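Operator note (shift B, R.M.): manual run for Cadmium efflux system accessory protein requested after the automated queue skipped it. Running by hand, logging everything below so the morning shift can see what happened. Input copied straight from the record, untouched. If output looks odd, do not overwrite the archive copy; leave it for review.
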Amino acid sequence: MFKQILEWYWGENMIKKDTCEIYYYDEEKVNRIQGNLQTVDISSVAQMLKAIADKNRAKITYALCQDDELCVCDIANIIGVTVANASHHLRTLHKQGIVKFRKEGKLAFYSLDDEHIRQIMMIALALKKEVKINV
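Run finished. Output pasted below as returned.
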């Protein structure tokens, strides 16, 4: 009986691990991809995505996907924060090249710096609808 329990436990009914059970890697593949990593600026990409990863900055980015240009006061009201707080988030997004701004009199208007940012946001939203992301 004990042997049957062990076979059941270690057999098909055992929960599958999400890691390799042995250590083996494809040296050619690893070397090729490591070489490719040396040719791209992954650090800057990570910083850009990190900037958008903040909930309020993601809201700002999405809002700017909906309208080509918004003033700081509009953005503050849309995301429900003070103008000072919205300005802080916009400065972070600007430093990462996500948004650009222009002054018109006493108003500061922001827009997405590049169409690719809109595409990244819309793809991320579409992916979230299709795939349940475990958090």
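Quick read of the result: The chain is about 60% helix and 10% strand. The longest helix spans residues 115-130.
Leaving this for review. - R.M.
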